[in-house]
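DM from R.C. (forwarded with permission)

"hey, sorry to bug you on a friday — could you get me a structure for this? deadline for the figure draft is monday and I only need the backbone to look sensible"
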Amino acid sequence: MKEITDKYDGININITSGPCVGDDYILIKDITDLDLKSTQIDHNPGEVLMIDFWATWCPPCQKPMAHNQEMVEKHRDDWGGKVRIIGVSIDKDAPTVKNHVEKNGWTSVEHYHRAQSSCSDDYGVRGVPNILVIGPDGKIAF
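My reply, with the result:
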């Protein structure tokens, strides 16, 4: 693009992209847990994080959330300290998320409300469901 536009005066093009596979994990902070406490999602070396951005009002998000719950329960003993499945809701408020999670019995998955976090912008989340996988090396794997 620069090659093409350099010959014209007054054209200024800035191209940016969000994080890509192989980039470092960007700490997700300023989120709230289901007890309405502000927190962050840390990555521990050697651990895989699967972060599922979702919403209670999103029909395509419901089956994956139920599946996440099943996977955590099925692999709890094998995954302990190695794999975490995390739901980050983009709903308007945390109590809505808490009620939905409890009503559906999805309490084995770690759930958070996006709250004041910039994580959607940091990771280019423009719709839900949206999955992010962080590998054991702290790099974006997917």
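R.C.: lifesaver. The beta strands are 28-33, 38-41, 48-54, 83-89, 110-113, 130-134.
me: no worries. Helices lie at 2-5, 59-79, 94-104, 119-122.
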